[in-house]
């Protein structure tokens, strides 16, 4: 399955010549070696107005990006896991204010880092338990080892939790280990990008009685027709998977990164609800269209429309933005004027970013420079796929917004 243009752009407010600037601009990224290849899809009112591929999915093998190329989407998994959790919430299986220790007892007596070093940290009891909404909004006090900006990050790495957990640890084991580590801050008092969505995935498992992969397949992927979304690629799909790259520190050229990229060919022990999926553009297009349509696509309803609206409002304490609440360990999103909902960053005011967008637009991306956003005001979705780590290497996301919104002329 692929995503082809379904309407002339000028019929719904886009200038085709201006949309072509997307290809010209990001084509230069490939031509000068910064990226190996990419794929982009832009829609409005459910119609595809621009769909393009450029460059190579595997530069060393000379294989071009095709419409059905598979991409590691990393943290674009988070919105999928968040939707799964909210499907259970809609069934009354839990409340957002419930303490997660009700299902994950290892989190019953968490402690919070106060001072000290990785060798001798001093912690205090949490004054507020971790609740479900804390996981969805990254306000639980959890972190990522790869951040490398705090003592708590160092404690994660010392315990074997960097970008991935130890190779033999499953989701349940990872959550048990993470619960023994101190929190970065008191739950509900700050925003810190973290393993919270992995813990949320474990919550989905315990509440539903299914493994996370089974739940997502049964309740989201099959109903939506997302036939190319998996946790790893088998022999049949291997040739469709784009290679992973990282910038050469001396030249800035994209260099193959098989040390990490090879993991996509192995069935994972750890089902990362925060970053484990591999997907095609067509599949993620269907996921974003479901959200744009208020939880329904082609007669299949995953969420109620009010639930989607609720998820995509700012849930940060006091209505504050990320600029006010972020702990500073994550720098791949503009913080000022951006809040956070239940699984998505949410634009409150586009002016601080100096990039056009609509109030209420929601989005996220992945560490290999993939990105998406959904604009319910203009009824736009935009998707961009490539495989370059980290995503902070180039300003791809603001540039894509710049190019898309400047092509909207109605």
From TrEMBL:
Highest taxon listed in the record's lineage: Bacteria
Lineage: Bacteria, Bacillati, Actinomycetota, Actinomycetes, Micromonosporales
Protein name: Beta-lactamase family protein
Pfam families on file: Beta-lactamase
Species the sequence originates in: Micromonospora globbae
PANTHER family membership: BETA-LACTAMASE FAMILY PROTEIN (AFU_ORTHOLOGUE AFUA_5G07500), BETA-LACTAMASE-RELATED
Domain Beta-lactamase-related positions: 22-403
InterPro entries for the chain: Beta-lactam-related, Beta-lactam/transpept-like, Diverse_Enzym_Activities
């Amino acid at each position: 399955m692929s995503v082809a243009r379904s309407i002339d752009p000028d019929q719904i407010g886009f200038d085709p010549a201006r949309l072509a600037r997307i290809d010209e601009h990001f084509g230069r990224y490939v031509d000068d070696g910064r990226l190996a290849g990419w794929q982009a899809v832009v829609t409005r009112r459910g119609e595809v107005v621009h769909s393009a591929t450029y460059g190579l999915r595997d530069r060393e093998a000379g294989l071009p990006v095709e419409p059905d190329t598979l991409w590691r989407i990393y943290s674009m998994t988070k919105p999928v896991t968040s939707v799964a959790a909210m499907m259970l919430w809609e069934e009354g299986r839990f409340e957002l204010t419930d303490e997660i220790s009700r299902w994950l007892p290892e989190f019953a007596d968490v402690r919070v880092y106060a001072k000290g070093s990785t060798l001798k940290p001093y912690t205090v009891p949490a004054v507020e338990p971790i609740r479900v909404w804390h996981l969805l909004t990254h306000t639980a006090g959890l972190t990522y080892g790869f951040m490398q900006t705090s003592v708590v990050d160092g404690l994660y790495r010392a315990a074997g939790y960097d970008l991935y957990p130890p190779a033999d640890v499953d989701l349940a084991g990872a959550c048990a280990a993470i619960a023994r580590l101190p929190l970065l801050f008191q739950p509900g008092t700050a925003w810190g990008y973290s393993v919270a969505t992995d813990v949320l995935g474990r919550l989905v498992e315990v509440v539903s009685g299914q493994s996370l992969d089974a739940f997502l397949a049964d309740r989201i992927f099959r109903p939506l027709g997302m036939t190319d979304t998996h946790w790893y690629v088998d022999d049949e799909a291997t040739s469709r998977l784009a290679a992973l790259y990282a910038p050469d520190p001396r030249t800035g050229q994209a260099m193959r990164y098989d040390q990490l990229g090879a993991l996509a060919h192995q069935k994972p022990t750890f089902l990362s609800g925060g970053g484990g999926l591999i997907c095609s553009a067509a599949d993620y297009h269907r996921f974003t269209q479901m959200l744009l349509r208020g939880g329904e696509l082609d007669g299949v309803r995953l969420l109620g429309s009010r639930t989607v609206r609720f998820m995509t409002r700012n849930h940060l304490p006091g209505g504050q933005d990320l600029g006010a609440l972020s702990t500073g360990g994550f720098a791949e999103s503009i913080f000022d004027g951006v809040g956070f909902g239940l699984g998505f960053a949410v634009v409150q005011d586009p002016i601080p970013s100096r990039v056009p967008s609509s109030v209420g637009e929601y989005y996220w991306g992945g560490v290999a420079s993939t990105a998406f956003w959904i604009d319910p005001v203009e009824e736009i979705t935009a998707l961009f796929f490539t495989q370059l780590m980290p995503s902070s290497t180039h300003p791809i996301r603001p540039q894509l917004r710049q190019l898309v919104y400047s092509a909207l002329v109605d």
